[in-house]
Amino acid sequence: MKPKEITIVSGKGGTGKTSLTAALVSFAPQRTVLCEADVDAPDLEILLHPVKVSEHPFMGMRTAAVDAERCIGCGKCESVCRFEAIDMSSGKAVVDKTFCEGCSACTLVCPQECILMEDTRQGTWFFGQTDFGPMVHARLNPGGENSGMLVQLVRKEARLTAKKTGAGIILTDGPPGIACPAISAVTGADIALIVTEPTMSGRHDMLRIAELCERFGAKAAVILNKADLSNEGAVKIEEACRENGLPLLASIPFLLDVVHAVAQARIPSEELKSYIGPIWEKLMKL
Ligand code: SF4
Ligand code: SF4
After folding, report:
1. What does the alpha-carbon distance between residue 77 and residue 88 come to, in Å, rounded to a whole number?
2. Ligand 1 pocket, Cβ-based, cut-off 6 angstroms
3. Left (φ > 0), alpha (ψ -120 to 50) or beta: where does 164 sit?
4. Stretch 161-188: mean pLDDT, rounded?
5. Does the pLDDT at position 138 exceed 80?
6. Cα 24 from Cα 44, distance rounded (Å)
């Protein structure tokens, strides 16, 4: 049977998404594969401490590379590059991969035809083993491109792992925001679980990610975290959920013990236990 894919997302950062994901994993009702899709800030591994099984390069966008022996230093490539990625200070063209956007314009003007486009490593992805099951996770290089592609890759590998191990659930820690990696993280998920907080930006960004989920065919549900920090904000989140047909699965108060657990790189399982059981029940019904 095809495993159910649950992606935990948040319209904004700092809502407690990753802590909740880790707590959900520790009480999962079925065999689970974990997937870290927050490849810009992969913090789930800090809480789950996966033991590395294997490590793989993530080759993303093609960037320019100059054959220095054939370069005659004419500077044509530098003048055509809109991204200031080519340095001629040594008398020969040198490409700074951090700035190269892979447009290939330089290859068209080079009289020596000595610029090639080559696959460039943008990050690393891993298979790991945790106390709660196998984990596929990844790290984008600082300044790395193609985060959406990397999210797609880890999700594909998580599905293959679920097939091999017979896991019934894939639990994915998605990225915050509504950009390309968030789209890659929710597309094809059975449920997108939105973690929010009782603030104006929490409500605003929850509705934006909910719209994204609807557009990409993932059923959305909401957890309101740190609910007692603002009664007024909590009421507004509840109203917004009602008005937009978003099931509100739980309202969790701000718990200092959760903060302490996370500060010690520990899953806040015990601290969140009384909330996580009912959330799983509702999730499985959905
Ligand atoms: S591929 Fe485009 S961005 Fe990269 S160095 Fe060449 S012209 Fe500049
Ligand atoms: S256009 Fe070609 S030959 Fe001229 S500087 Fe650039 S790489 Fe060198």
Report:
1. 9
2. 63-64, 80-81, 83, 85-86, 95, 100-106
3. alpha
4. 93
5. yes
6. 12
- Ligand 1 pocket test, candidate residues 79, 94, 106, 109, most atoms within 8 A of CB: 106
Between the CA of 79 and the centroid of ligand 1 the distance, in Å, is: 10
- The CATH architecture assigned to 68-113 reads 2-Layer Sandwich (3.30)
pLDDT at 143: 81
Strand partners for 32: 169
Taking all residues of the chain, what is their mean pLDDT, rounded to a whole number? 94
Kindly tell me the sign of the dihedral angle through the C-alpha atoms of 22, 24, 27, 30.
negative
Helix-, strand-, coil-residue percentages of the chain, each rounded to 5: 40, 30, 35
* pLDDT at position 230 over 80: yes
pLDDT recorded at residue 51? 97
List the domain boundaries for the chain.
4-59+123-285, 68-113
The torsion angle over the Cα atoms of residues 158, 161, 166 and 169, rounded to 10 degrees, is -10
Look at residue 1 and tell me whether its pLDDT is greater than 80.
Answer: no
CATH, domain range 4-59+123-285: 3.40.50.300
pLDDT band, residue 144 (cuts 50/70/90): confident
Q: How far is CA 72 from CA 102, 107, 115, in A?
A: 22, 14, 12
Q: What angle do CA 279, 284, 133 make, to 5 degrees?
A: 85
Q: In the structure, which protein residues have their CB atom closer than 6 angstroms to any atom of ligand 2?
A: 66, 71-77, 93, 109-112, 114-115
The structure tokens listed for 191 are 């449920």
Over range 247-252, report the average pLDDT.
96
Residue 98 pLDDT: 87
Tokens 């019904």 map to which residue? 285
